[in-house]
Amino acid sequence: MPSKRPKSSLAALHAGSDEDIQLTAEHPEAELTHVVRGIVRHGLKPVPPKASISLRVDHDVLAWFKAQGRGYQTRINAVLRAFRDASA
């Protein structure tokens, strides 16, 4: 479906520079991680929602996962998924 926006406004947009962009509280500068996630997800199937649970894990195991840095819950999920797949 073609855009209903006049071509003149698109030309003006392309002709502008970064200094012409006015940031506001309602429209702040986008964080790089937010932009990258949008690019990476573009065209892919939606990720199904995850279930929120309470899980009791030994302290040393949790400390090891956390010591690996950000995303420790995602890594725990990946280990559980690998165990499930190997057990099938």
Walk me through the structure.
The chain has 88 residues and is an all-alpha fold. It has a domain of 33 residues. Helices cover 50% and strands 0% of the residues. The protein is elongated, with a radius of gyration of 22 Å. The model has no long low-confidence stretch (mean pLDDT 81).
Provide the residue-averaged pLDDT: 81
Q: Mind describing the biggest β-sheet?
A: none
| Rg calc | 22 Å
Poorly predicted runs of 5 or more residues? none
Helix segment count? 4
**Whole-Å distance between the termini?**
46 Å
| Structure classification | mainly alpha
Strand content bin: under 5%
In total, how many beta strands?
Answer: 0
Oligomer state of the chains in this structure: single chain
- Rough shape? elongated
Order of H and E elements: HHHH
Helical percentage: 40-55%
